[in-house]
Structure formats: C-alpha cells, structure tokens
C-alpha cells in the first residue's frame, strides 16, 4: 500500500476542500482476512436472539395412553402417539433456547476494524466531510451532498452523537446507514464510508494500535528485574557483615596486648 494515504474532503454542501491524510496504522495495514471472518461471524452470532424452541415428546400435549396393546394385532408396537415418528408428535434433537455470543479478544477486534478500514481506504472509498452546518433536517440536502460526492450504492455515515440534524436528514435516504460507532460488519457491508472530521480523529488519532514489545512478557527482563531487586538487600547485608581481614587484625592486636600485659603482672608479683 502507499506510504501516504489520503481521502477527499468536502463541505456540507458537497464542495471539494482538498484532501485529508489518513493514519497509516489504521487505514494503511494489510487486511487480515481470517481475523475479519472470525470477528464478523462472532458479531452476527451475537445478534441472534437464540429464542427458538421446539417441543419434545414430553412437552407435547396428549399421548399419555398406549394407542393399542403390545401384541396380537399385527401392527408395529407403539407406546405414545406423541412419539417423534408420529404426525403431531414431539421433535427429536430440535433447537432449544441458547446464547450464540462468542468471546473475541480485544486485539482481534481492533485488528479486524483496522483491516476493514484499510480495505476501504485501499479502494478509495473513504470520504470526509468538514461538518454538517444545516439549520434544519432536510433529506434533500443529504441527497444533494451524496450526489456531489459521487457516492453510490450502500453508504455508511459515521456521525457524532451530537449531530442530530445530520442524523435526521440522512436516516430516510435509501441504502444509507447512519451510526455513531464503527464495526467491521458495517464497514464491509458499505461500498463507501463517510466520516466527519471529528469522527475521523476519534477513529484514528488518539490510540496507538501497534503491538510492541511491552505487550509480551520477557523472561530475561523479569529475571533481571528480580536480580536487580535483590541487589540492594545483598549490598546492605554485605555492609553489615564485618570484614574478615579486619577481624584477623583485631584478633592479633588483642593477643599482642595480652602477651605484653603478662610480664608486667609477673614482675609485680616478684617485687612483692
């Protein structure tokens, strides 16, 4: 991909205002298709209600009496008319209410979002609007803006939550989805993604999505930090322990003093 990614900038009435440089770490990476598939699958699975329910033979009303006796009639043996093999009977191994949501790691979600944005940026399907300074909600203004930007097909417009006028103007336009958040599924669904200057800054400017060395545990660094943390204590213990050489010197001095004192005591006893 190109080193410098740009997107056209427009005013609220559709006039060209130049270009805006896109963040390379968000709009300029190589799309990871397997991660995109897994995240979109998880997103669609989480949207399922999971309220399906079928009745088993124990839940269907009736069937408490054996339809006919076990032997002697030449018929197949049955114990209930609500068996799954009977019309109107229960359903064997049918769907029951369940939760379809999947746990997706945060880094995988971020990578999928950056991959989807990068795919649209590589195709030149990112548009930027300075802001919506419309006084009142008008669908005509929204359609004129889309026509001036030469936008066709399915469009995703990312607005700030405070852009009520723009939301009311765009919500009735066909094949246009207005949202205050972005997700991989909506980006891949849309042929063109339109940001405002504020939402573009929120999507790309404030957080670094790159994975660095600090995201992993290094055993060497942890061991080194452990050794470093133990060094001050070792130095303190070493400072408290007396030196062996000084002990030997002190001991020899005491022995010398004892040897010098002995003749003095002996001379004093002899004089007495």
In short:
This protein has 272 residues and is α/β, with parallel strands linked by helices. It is built from nine helices and six strands; from the N terminus they run E-E-H-H-H-E-H-E-H-E-H-E-H-H-H.
Please provide the count of β strands: 6
- Class of the largest domain in CATH? Alpha Beta
Annotated CATH topology of the largest domain: Ribosomal Protein L4, Chain: A
Supply the CATH architecture of the largest domain. 3-Layer(aba) Sandwich
- CATH superfamily of the largest domain, please? Ribosomal protein L4/L1
> How far apart are the first and last residues' alpha carbons, in Å?
112 Å
Using only CA atoms, what is the Rg? 40 Å
Portion in strands? 5-15%
Low-pLDDT segments, ≥5 res: 206-227, 256-260, 262-272
**Proportion of residues in helical segments:** 40-55%
Biggest β-sheet: strands ordered side by side in the sheet: 2-1-3-6-4-5
Integer average pLDDT: 81
How would you portray this structure in words?
With 272 residues, the protein is of the alpha/beta class. It folds into 2 domains: 150 residues, Ribosomal protein L4/L1 (Ribosomal Protein L4, Chain: A); 59 residues. Helix content is 43%, strand content 11%. It is built from 9 helices and 6 strands; from the N terminus they run ββαααβαβαβαβααα. It has a 6-stranded mixed β-sheet. β1 and β2 form a beta hairpin. α2 crosses α3 and α4 packs across α5. The longest helix has 28 residues. The protein is elongated, with a radius of gyration of 40 Å.
């Amino acid at each position: 991909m190109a080193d410098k990614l740009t997107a056209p900038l427009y005013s609220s009435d559709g006039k060209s205002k130049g270009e805006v440089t896109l963040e390379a770490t968000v709009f300029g990476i190589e799309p990871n298709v397997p991660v995109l598939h897994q995240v979109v699958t998880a997103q669609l699975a989480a949207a399922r209600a999971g309220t399906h329910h079928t009745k088993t033979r124990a839940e269907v009303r009736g069937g408490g009496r054996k339809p006919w006796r076990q032997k002697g009639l030449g018929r197949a043996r049955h114990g209930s008319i609500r068996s799954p093999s009977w019309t109107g009977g229960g359903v064997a191994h049918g769907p029951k209410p369940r939760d379809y949501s999947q746990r997706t790691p945060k880094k995988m979600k971020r990578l999928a979002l950056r991959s989807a944005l990068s795919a649209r940026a590589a195709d030149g399907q990112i548009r930027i609007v300075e802001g919506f300074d419309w006084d009142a909600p008008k669908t005509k203004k929204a359609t004129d803006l889309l026509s001036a930007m030469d936008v066709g097909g399915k469009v995703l417009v990312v607005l700030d939550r405070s852009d009520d006028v723009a939301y009311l103007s765009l919500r009735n336009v066909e094949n246009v989805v207005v949202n205050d958040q972005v997700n991989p599924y909506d980006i891949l669904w849309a042929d063109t993604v339109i940001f405002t200057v504020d939402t573009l800054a929120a999507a790309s400017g404030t957080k670094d999505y790159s994975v660095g060395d600090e995201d992993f545990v290094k055993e060497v660094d942890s061991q080194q930090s452990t050794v470093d943390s133990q060094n001050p204590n070792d130095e303190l213990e070493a400072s408290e322990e007396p030196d062996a050489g000084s002990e030997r010197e002190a001991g020899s001095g005491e022995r010398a003093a004892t040897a010098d004192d002995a003749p003095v005591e002996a001379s004093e006893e002899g004089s007495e």
